[in-house]
Amino acid sequence: MSAQTLRQQVHHIADELPPEATWDDVLYQVELHASIERGLAQVRAGNTIPAEDVRAQLQAELKATQ
Q1: Burial, 45: exposed, middle or buried (Cβ in 10 Å; 0-12, 13-18, 19+)?
Q2: Residue 42: domain span
């Protein structure tokens, strides 16, 4: 979706909402899309953590709480 302009993205979000959507629904969808875009930008910049490292960190934290 990043090839589209912000305006096009907002229109797409609005078009996908059900007729009974609330402003809270709109804000949620906009923040969701913005969060996904931020995550994709981090991936493109190489700011990722290998899954093995995440598993090891979680296992260490779980052991520390037991």
Answers
A1: exposed
A2: 6-65
Q: What is the DSSP secondary structure assignment for residue 46, as one 8-state letter?
A: T
The CA dihedral of 19, 25, 30, 33, to the nearest 10 degrees, is -90
User: pLDDT category, 56, cuts 50, 70, 90?
Assistant: very high
pLDDT digit string, tens, across residues 25-41: 999 999 999 999 999 99
pLDDT band at 3 (very low <50, low <70, confident <90, very high): confident
Q: How many domains does the chain have?
A: 1
| Residue owning tokens 């923040």 | 31
CA distance linking residue 4 with residue 40, whole number of Å: 15
